[in-house]
Design a protein that fits this description.
Layout (H helix, E strand, L loop, with lengths): L7 E5 H18 L1 H17 L9 E3 L7 E5 L9 E7 L7 E9 L4 H4 L10 E2 L5 H7 L2
Helix pairs in contact: 1-2, 1-4, 2-4
Amino acid sequence: MTGDRTWRVRVTATAENDIRNILQWTYERFGDVQAQIYGETLTRAIQALTEGPYVTGSRQRDDIGEGLLTLHVARGRRKGRHLVLYRIGDKGTSRMIEVLRLLHDSMDLVRHVPAKEPDRDAIHDNDVRITLRLARNL
C-alpha cells in the first residue's frame, strides 16, 4: 500500500465499454454465472487500485506509453486473462488513478493505448463496482 488513505479510481468511458464487451463475450460463451464471476474478478482488480498505483502485481509500462501501468486481473485463486491499463491522475489531482482500458493479455497493448488524453467529459467518477452493475445488465 502506498499510504494510509484510499486512492480514488476513475474509470474512463472507453474502459467502461471494454468491461461491457468483456462481460458480454463471457456471457455469450459461458453463461450468466460465469459472467457474474468474471465481473467480480474484474471488480476486485480495479478495487485493488484503491490501495494505490503500485499494488502487488502492478507493472510500470513505459514501454507502451509514458506513465502507464498495468495490473493483471487474476487475483488470488481467481483466474483471468485481462490487464487493467491505468495511470496516476493529473499532477494537480492527488491520490487519483485513471483506468484507461481493460485489455486481453494476448493483445498488442501499444495498438490499444489511447493516442491522446481522454476527454474529461468521457471520464466517469464511478464506484469501482461498476463491473458488477454491467454484468447484471447483460
